[in-house]
Amino acid sequence: MTTQARLPKLVAFDLDYTLWDFWVDTHVHPPLRRHHVTGKVIDSQRNPKTIEFYRDVPQIMHRLQAAGVTIAACSRTDAPSLAREALDLILIPPKTSSDSNAKPIPAIKFFDQLEIYPSSKIRHFKKLHEKTGIPYDEMLFFDDERRNQEVEELGVTFTLVPNGLNDRILEKGLEEWRKRHPVQVTEDVVGADCGTLI
Questions:
Q1: Please, what is the Cα angle at 150 between 62 and 142, to 5 degrees?
Q2: Active-site residue (options: 14, 143, 144, 167)
Q3: Residue 179: in which H helix or E strand, if any?
Q4: What percent of the chain has pLDDT over 90?
């Protein structure tokens, strides 16, 4: 019998240079628009910028959502409404193994919590804790800026994303979180006052 590896209750992502390859408040020019046939999202520059996630992000979102993990966005951007608009317009394709009639889903629907406003990541995570009741040690955070490792003061596990989120970085973060928070085997033992667990 195989057991599924344990996952944190909440996984949070920064946006800029973590889920997409730009700073939404400086590199993107509103209004944004989605092409009605291709679904491609672009901004309003003379040479329009394509607004999309890094390649592995859609399947990562599907995986976490299917596992029942709470997904959050934590961004200190100075353009929160533009960031939300981008999340609303980006379409995530259906899971590769799903029904062929399934339609793409707006990315924003994958996020259970949005903390998108100029502030420290400490404040973002305090808000997440307050809203969800999830303990900090059940949270994993992916961000491209080392300074945001400050969230570890709260008990959140931090994973640096040097060149955009991908499957390898996700697994590295999950592995680190599991190492820091091993399963408490004694919780499953009824009436075990002492003795060795085998």
A1: 15
A2: 14
A3: helix 167-180
A4: 81
